[in-house]
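Async update (no meeting this week)

Hi team, since we skipped the sync, here's where things stand on the single-chain job. The sequence we agreed to prioritize is pasted below, unchanged from the tracker. I ran it this morning and attached the output directly underneath so nobody has to dig for it. Comments welcome in thread, and please keep replies under the output.
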Amino acid sequence: MLKSIYPKLKYLTVVFVLVTGCLLFMYAVPAKNQVMAKPLAANLAPVSDSASLKSGYDRFLSLYDQLNLDSLQLSHEAFTYGLRGYQQLVDQGAVKNQHIISIVDFSLPSTKKRLFIIDLESGKLLFNTLVSHGRNSGTDMATRFSNDLNSFKSSLGFFVTGNTYKGEHGYSLRLDGKEKGINDRAYSRAIVMHAADYVNDKVIQVKGYLGRSLGCPAVPPSEHKAIINTIKDGTCMFVYSPDSNYISSSPVLAQPFMG
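Output:
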């Protein structure tokens, strides 16, 4: 009885070994045209930070033409320097709201609409309006600038907007100067954005130039709430002048740029 069963068991054992071996071989070696699955991380191409920044910077630069900012007389230098400093502040983590940049172009006289507020994400010009300069910075043109208390002059450079409050001039916006020795005393000088009755076309018609502040970038009362609510809480503001002393001494613009 055992002798008759033994050959059958031996045969079944051999078959089992052969089948098992084939299955293991098929599992270990994929078909010729089969592509092995890769881990997720291997499928994701690494993104270069510098390439990403450059791509964003180039895209933002194109807005100058897309928005016809030249026809609105915004200096191309003000725009490019503004974007360069904006990118530096973003890279440092100083800018909480990266969608908005505001540029005050003091290469323009006070009779021109020299405040430009741009939504970089949507590619839209949100505001283009009048803005004052300090009374000791000049009459129609702002040509003298200071970081000193009671200088009653405007400060140049890069700011990050802060919180809002109700003060002497009503609804106002604090500004944090980001350039040491150039505008970093903005808070102690109470340099803020606020509304002013002397910022309107009627004043220009009477005087030939816009009313002036004690150093604050004051805006028209009809627009100030909308402007402040748009740029408050961590956006970048750049106050520009083709002032060679500022350009050469700016801590922000002096930093190596990847764009």
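Quick observations from my side:
The longest helix spans residues 2-28.
Residues 2-43 form one domain.
Reply here if anything looks off.
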